Amino acid sequence: KILVLDFGGQYNQLIARRVRECGVYSEVKPYTTPLSDIQSEGYRGVIFTGGPSSVFDEGAPTCEKEMFSLGVPVLGICYGAQLMCQMFGGEVSRADTREYGLTELCVDNASPLFSDVTKDTTCWMSHTNYIKTPPSGFAVTATTKNCPVAAMESKEQGLYAVQFHPEVMHTPEGQKMLRHFLFEVCRCSGDWQMSSFTARAIAEIREKVGDKRVLCALSGGVDSSVAAVMVHKAVGKQLTCIFVDHGLLRKNEGDEVEQVFREQFDINLIRVDAKDRFLNKLKGVSDPERKRKIIGEEFIRVFEEEAKKVGQVEYLVQGTIYPDVIESGAGSAANIKSHHNVGGLPKDIGFKGLIEPLRDLFKDEVRRAGIELGIPEFLVWRQPFPGPGLAIRIIGDITEDKLAILKDADAIFRQEVADAGLDRSINQYFAVLTNMRSVGVMGDERTYDYTVALRGVTTTDFMTADWAKIPYEVLGKISSRIINEVPHVNRIVYDITSKPPATIEWE
Ligand code: XMP
């Protein structure tokens, strides 16, 4: 396995992920990790990440020199490269301007990192300081217009450094370079698979929990489901899952979740039917942010009441995944919507510790882990569903009648999208019950009924999105089915706005 030593850069987990993609296990640890801990882990190689600091800063992050004599190769990236340079007596210099973005790179094919890389390739740069003179014993292996030393190495010492970022997509041959580091330099075997990750995570959970008890707020979403199954595999009946059914889930969803967890996995599951409580609190409320707040608070209240009944519990499982970790760290972005996430519980509700087995994984890795654990595909490939559920898909106030209309319309939409084979290519799709009614004609009768809006988007990060180009025939079929099968709907519209300016949800 490979250690990614974290110096605070924004791509640290991405580096670890790229390494895993090559079939080599990797984990990220802070640069302050004691050398003895690193030694005992038996890493095949270490990658120093980039970071926001400058080696000239007072108190700039550094490491012990012995780090380089562990007998395993080290690859320094960006800040990591400059640190290596400075520690070995080379010269780092401050540039007047920052070099940022796609940059032409000229590599030396004699370097094991670049053996079959195009001689004139491109890379992604983001730095101000640069390596002016490499330490003695180091050869320069790549240059750019502004960087006399875009890469350097000392093969004898097993030390490699690149100023650019091989881990990002914008360095087209970056993955090749990482592969060379892993296989040619570190001699990794490349036989790691997701199953090794789950096996190891399960063993770690077992050790941490001992004979204590664990609680999980299960939402039925991919992340909390995978986390719950992992913990269940580790500690069996010491885990209790509380599934708060707020009545705002999609059609049949509550039963499906219950079936999988209770019957397939035989997990201790408490399903709380709290629909009336939630609907009561939401009565007459039409402001989206108030809906979110009410649901978030009520969720915590219900969860706490149920948790009390369970008795003494030491640990809480959370399905936090890596993008959540970044998002909650980012902080300063304008608050467009307060994304209450069911399952997101305050940290201070009296547990000894948190168990977050997915903290290092990206969404697609979580899905792979889910499949590995035997979770059914329909759960693993579930599209994202907001914590407040259908409450924010019913514009205006929420009533039982409106909920019933929306559930039926949405179920037809989802079924038809799946039947057309589009369910994995459209990243999120759902029906919205607009608060608008309009005149229609059904048979010989005038109707005055609701308009249902259909929304489908393609996106990779849900920060920006395009509307999905669902074929007209499919849309036509969905429209006529909803009109025919769902009472009180007489008009269907398809939302053709991207995000921005619209958001994905309507509220
Ligand atoms: P928007 O509507 O902001 O949605 O473009 C981006 C993604 O976030 C989901 N979303 C939420 N998820 N609680 C959640 O857990 C919320 O309150 C919430 N609001 C939006 C939305 O479904 C989409 O995937």
UniProtKB/TrEMBL annotation:
Residues at the catalytic site: C78 (nucleophile), H165, E167
Residues reported to bind ATP: S219, G220, G221, V222, D223, S224, S225
Alphabetized CDD domains for the sequence: GATase1_GMP_Synthase, GMP_synthase_C
Gene3D superfamilies, alphabetized: 3.30.300.10, 3.40.50.880, HUPs (3.40.50.620)
Top-level class of the enzyme under EC nomenclature: ligase
Keywords carried by this UniProt record: ATP-binding, Glutamine amidotransferase, GMP biosynthesis, Ligase, Nucleotide-binding, Purine biosynthesis
Quaternary state and interactors: Homodimer.
Protein name: GMP synthase [glutamine-hydrolyzing]
Organism: Solibaculum intestinale
Gene name as annotated: guaA
